[in-house]
Amino acid sequence: MANEKSCGAIIFTMENNVRKYVILCGVGIYQGYYGFPKGHMEEGETEQETALREVKEETGLDIVLYDDFRTVDEHALALEGRPDDRKTNVYFLAEYHDQEFIAQKSEVSKIVLLDYHEALKVLQYEESKRELMEAEQYLSRR
């Protein structure tokens, strides 16, 4: 059994006093699946460095990470044909302002900006929904 680790971010911005989240739609076997930007850690990177790099690569956004928010999920890589292998995803909360998306075509078919309830509706994975709920609760308490 192999273990992989990816890091990314649950990203938001404020638009007309409404918090909106950046949601990506994948390509290839992940076409039609919505989630948050993330990617594999490279040797020597911290989790935060990986998250910043992957967000920039996949969305073109320069983000600011919230140091006190971190959530983790783990799942089998069954969709990739590797049901015995596990993947750990680490997500930070991040914010951006006044930037245009630039989708990394090899990884992302589209990027959407959705309010909390819209985002919950498009996310298929229960873990992604839980992570979004944690982020929304964190931001609502601030």
Description:
- It contains 3 helices and 7 strands; from the N terminus they run E-E-E-E-H-E-E-E-H-H.
- The chain is α+β, with helices and mostly antiparallel strands and 142 residues long.
- Strands 1, 2, 3, 4, 5, 6 and 7 form a 7-stranded mixed β-sheet that branches.
- Strand 2 and strand 3 (34-35) form a beta hairpin.
How would you briefly describe this protein structure?
This protein is an alpha+beta fold and 142 residues long. The chain has helices spanning 47-59, 116-122, 126-141, and strands at residues 3-15, 18-26, 34-35, 38-40, 64-77, 82-95, 108-115. The chain is globular and about 45 Å long.
Written as H for each helix and E for each strand, in order along the chain, the element string is EEEEHEEEHH
Distance between the amino and carboxyl termini: 41 Å
The averaged pLDDT comes out at 92
How many helix segments?
A: 3
Strand runs, count: 7
| Major beta-sheet overview | 7 strands, mixed
Instruction: Name the helicity range.
Output: 25-40%
Low-pLDDT windows of residues: none
Supply Rg. Answer: 14 Å
Shape: globular
Multimerization status: single chain
Percent of sequence in beta strands:
35-45%
Main structural class = alpha+beta
